Structures are given as structure tokens and as C-alpha cells.
């Protein structure tokens, strides 16, 4: 497959994900991606998106001494039981399939229907006693069919890569692994369970502000819980 052109906008979206109880369902990440697309007001539609899937450890596998209680999945620490590990593998495969479907739509050329040459029913020519068959071309079938808009889990993103880490890195390590794949000046980091509310986060304005003042290195979206804290 031909190499992709550079991103149309100078920002890369990094979405971190890891094993959670709802795997293999992609509903949570899909909701987050759609909320991000909504709040960004279309500014990220042509941005590259990297979904980085953190690795995991099998719960109890590294314990040499038998424990009094059977091991349990501790999702926050990346330690999961074999059944949850398999659910996460299935989840990652679904993400990869969604990304491939998005790429196929983004690179497919617009199609044009074939012209159809048909025959009119025989009609009597004026003033003549014979019948003639007239050929005509259905020119309406030459109208171009628009290319399907690329989507990833229902979100209007046209370039999505899924980065699968072979071992557990944690949030910071996963972000670092994804940033190594970034070629843009700006990076927007989103966790898979942080949904944006409304359309109040202006990504384009944030990038303009950071470009205008080089001292501004980081812009954070305020959480609802933080917004409820009374000012000092």
C-alpha cells in the first residue's frame, strides 16, 4: 500500500487504552473518540490518531510462593487473569480492524458508474411506414459517486494507527512510546475513559496560543470534578 501523505493538520491525537472489565467491547473508546471529534469542531478530522494499547501482566504468574487467595484482575496496575487477557486481545483486534476499515475508506478513489447504452422501444418514424430502433445514453449514470467518509468507531477520523505494546508500560510509558511515532509539532493526549462534554475545547485556538507564546508548553482540559472545586 502506498505511503500516507503527511498529516493535514499539525497535531497528532494519542489515545491511550489498556485492559478494562468491558473488553472486548469498544463502546467506551468509541464514545471518547466521538466526544473528541464533537468538541474539536472538526479541527481534528484530518489529524493522525494513534491508539496505543498498553501491554499487561498475567495475575499471579510471577508469584513464586502460593498466595492464600486466588489471584484477581487488577486492571489499574495492568495485572489481569488469563480470561481478561483474552478479552483484551479480542478488543485490540477489533480496534485494528476498525483502523484498517478507516484507512480503506480514506484511500479509496471516488467511483464513477458505468454508462449504460440502452435501446428505446421501436417507434414508427413520421411519414414512413417502417419502424426504427433508437439508441440512447443514460448520462445520469455518469454522475460521480462521492467517496465514503472515513470513520473510526463512529468518529470522523481519517487516519488511525493502532500501536500495540508487547509489555506493560503504564500510562506515562505508553504515551512516550506513542510520541516516538509523532511527526507533528503538537500532541493531544486523551485517555480512553475521558469523555469531552459539549463543544468548549477549542483545539485550534489552543494551538494558536501555544504558537504565539513559546513559554506555553501545556494546555489541559478541565475535568468536571475540578470545575466544581471552589477557587482559593
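Sequence proposed for the structure above (232 residues):
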Amino acid at each position: 500500500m502506498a505511503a500516507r501523505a503527511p498529516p493535514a493538520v499539525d497535531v497528532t491525537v494519542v489515545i491511550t487504552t489498556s485492559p478494562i472489565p468491558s473488553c472486548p467491547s469498544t463502546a467506551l473508546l468509541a464514545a471518547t473518540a466521538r466526544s473528541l471529534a464533537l468538541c474539536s469542531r472538526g479541527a481534528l478530522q484530518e489529524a493522525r490518531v494513534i491508539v496505543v494499547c498498553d501491554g499487561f501482566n498475567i495475575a499471579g504468574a510471577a508469584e513464586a510462593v502460593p498466595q492464600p487467595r486466588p489471584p484477581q484482575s487488577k486492571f489499574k496496575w495492568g495485572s489481569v487473569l488469563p480470561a481478561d487477557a483474552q478479552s483484551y486481545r479480542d478488543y485490540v483486534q477489533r480496534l485494528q480492524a476498525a483502523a484498517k476499515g478507516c484507512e480503506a475508506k480514506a484511500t479509496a478513489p471516488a467511483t464513477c458508474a458505468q454508462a449504460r447504452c440502452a435501446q428505446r422501444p421501436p417507434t414508427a418514424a413520421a411519414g414512413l411506414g417502417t419502424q426504427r430502433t433508437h439508441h440512447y445514453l443514460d448520462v445520469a449514470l455518469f454522475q460521480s459517486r462521492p467517496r465514503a467518509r472515513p470513520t473510526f468507531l463512529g468518529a470522523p477520523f481519517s487516519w488511525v494507527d493502532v500501536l500495540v505494546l508487547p509489555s506493560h508500560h503504564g500510562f506515562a510509558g505508553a504515551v512516550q512510546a506513542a510520541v516516538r511515532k509523532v511527526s507533528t509539532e503538537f500532541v493531544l493526549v486523551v485517555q480512553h475513559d475521558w469523555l469531552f462534554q459539549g463543544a468548549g475545547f477549542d483545539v485550534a485556538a489552543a494551538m494558536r496560543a501555544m504558537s504565539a507564546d513559546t513559554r506555553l508548553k501545556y494546555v489541559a482540559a478541565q475535568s468536571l470534578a475540578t470545575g466544581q472545586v471552589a477557587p482559593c
